[in-house]
Specification:
Rossmann fold; cell membrane; globular; 7 helices; nucleotide-binding; binds adenosine-5'-triphosphate; ATP hydrolysis activity; alpha/beta; six-stranded mixed beta sheet; four-stranded antiparallel beta sheet; 28% strand; ATP binding
């Protein structure tokens, strides 16, 4: 077998010794406690772990929404932990797409308009129609959110996140509000986006069955990564048992 090109195998994120401490009055919560993690360029990663183990905290730090208390978070060699607010804003705007459990679409705008809102301020976006087609919504472009199912609304949210061609797509419980059949369609959209755009994709989930669609699975425990498993064989989202 041909070796993979270096650009496919190199780490896009190198995270070392990351801690995050939340101080609420007298109470100190150590949300992250020495995280070591390398996310490989272009991979689909699934992040698993019990409630409160630090998954969202780490995703927010990777996405430039928050900073670690200590440690290093390098994106393509650039230190995010030391970035200014303005640098983090530019980083998020230029490089990161977010998908959350709830879709946060603007109810008075159509699917197309929700996506166009982002593409209008991006530097080299795909067209809203192309982004919506990538998630299988070419026939729903002019519907308003209230006229779409939950899974369709989540796919609009994915189209909105990827239309600016981010290098990184971060998804926090993207199927958390969906039934299994709808969740599978959303996972299919994410797998297709990952394969076709090459965006490094990280998905937080409570559903351990989803782990088999990933290239790698990172398991959290008590604010650390307890294990990293490489899936030699990946399954299709349609084969996920919920
Ligand atoms: N803003 C905050 N202030 C104080 N504590 C926080 C804050 N955000 C998170 N925490 C605490 O940090 C710990 C890790 O939270 P985090 O949301 O990262 O966990 P999680 O693994 O994503 O959990 P879940 O699966 O329930 O979403 C928890 O104990 C949580 O209560």
């Amino acid at each position: 077998m041909e070796p993979e090109p270096a650009s496919k195998t190199s780490a896009i994120f190198e995270i070392t010794g990351v801690t995050k401490i939340y101080q609420t009055g007298e109470v100190e919560v150590r949300a992250l406690n020495g995280v070591e993690l390398k996310l490989q360029r272009g991979e689909m990663a699934v992040l698993l772990g019990p409630s409160g183990s630090g998954k969202s905290t780490l995703l927010n730090i990777i996405g430039g929404l928050d900073r670690p208390t200590s440690g290093s978070v390098k994106f393509k060699g650039e230190e995010l932990a030391a970035a200014s607010d303005r640098e983090l804003t530019l980083y998020r705007r230029n490089h990161v797409g977010f998908v959350f459990q709830f879709y946060n679409l603007i109810p008075s705008l159509t699917a197309w308009e929700n996506v166009a809102l982002i593409t209008e301020v991006a530097t080299s976006p795909m067209s809203p129609a192309d982004a919506l087609a990538l998630v299988g919504l070419e026939n729903r472009m002019h519907h308003f959110p209230a006229q779409l199912s939950g899974g369709e609304q989540q796919r609009v949210a994915i189209a909105r996140a990827i239309a600016k061609r981010p290098e990184v797509l971060l998804c926090d419980e993207p199927t958390g509000a969906l039934d299994s059949a709808t969740g599978i369609i959303v996972l299919e959209a994410l797998a297709r986006v990952n394969a076709e755009t090459g965006a490094t994709t990280a998905i937080i989930t409570h559903n351990a069955g989803i782990r088999k669609i990933a290239h790698r699975v990172y398991s959290f425990l008590d604010g650390r990564i307890a294990s990293c498993v490489v899936n030699e064989v990946r399954i299709q989202p349609s084969e996920v048992s919920w």
